[in-house]
Every structure is written in C-alpha cells, then in structure tokens.
Amino acid sequence: MITIPIIAFNQLLFHGGILPMVILTVLLVLLFLSAWKAPNWVKEIGLAALAVSVLLQAGVWIHSIDAILQCDGNISPLLLWNGALSTLIVIAYGIVIYLISLVLRIVNKARI
C-alpha cells in the first residue's frame, strides 16, 4: 500500500521560505479582498502572484548555484533536492493563487 505524506500548511510556509511565502500570502489576502471590493483587480493580483513566485524561484536558483560553485561541487544530493523542493513549493503556491484568481473571475462574470 502506498502512503502519501500529508504536509501541514504551516510546514509548507516554513519550508518554502518565510519571506517568499509571506509575500505570496499577502497577495492571496489581497486577492480575496479585491474580489469582494474591487473585482477588476483580481486578474492583476493573480498575475502578480504568479510573476512574483517565478521571480523568487529564479532568485533562489541563482543563489543555490552560487553556493554550489563556492563548494567546488562537493555538495550532498539531499541538500540539493531539499533546495529544489523549496523552490517548487514557492512556484506551486504562486500557481495556486493564480488559479484561485481565475475561479474568482469566472464567478464574478457569472454574477454580471
């Protein structure tokens, strides 16, 4: 039997990095507020979350590659994959926020 580990949301926030995940969470809160008060901003906030997550992922990869080069390539594969997981969590969170913005736009168009 295959078991799938369930990771709590607070563990994802910590593992993805505090600053990137806080920035994306603030954008998620702004997304819900804009859906309620200013529906025209939903698309822009969703795209901003996607762009910020891609930018943060690129920054983390640049920093990781620089650290690997400083170690002359002698780095543990476990450490390397742990860093890759952190960047994937950030990009996945940005994509989820963008998908939420798409759903909110569809719901708002149905109301009109």
- Can you tell me the overall shape? elongated
Low-confidence stretches: none
- Fraction in helix: over 70%
Estimate nothing, just give the exact number of structural domains.
1
Oligomer: single chain
Indicate the proportion of strand residues. Answer: under 5%
What's the story with the biggest beta sheet? none
Strands, total number: 0
Span of the ends, CA to CA: 48 Å
Provide the gyration radius in Å: 17 Å
Q: Which structural class best describes the helix and strand composition? A: mainly alpha
Number of helices: 4
Q: Which H/E pattern describes the elements?
A: HHHH
Question: Would you tell me the overall average pLDDT?
Answer: 83
Q: Can you give keywords for this protein?
A:
112 residues; mainly alpha; 0% strand
Describe this structure in a few short sentences.
The chain has 112 residues and is mainly alpha-helical.
Describe the structure.
This protein is an all-alpha fold and 112 residues long. It has one domain (9-111). It is built from four helices and no strands. Helix 2 (18-37) runs antiparallel to helix 3, helix 2 (18-37) packs parallel to helix 4 and helix 3 packs antiparallel against helix 4 (77-111). The radius of gyration is 17 Å and the shape is elongated.
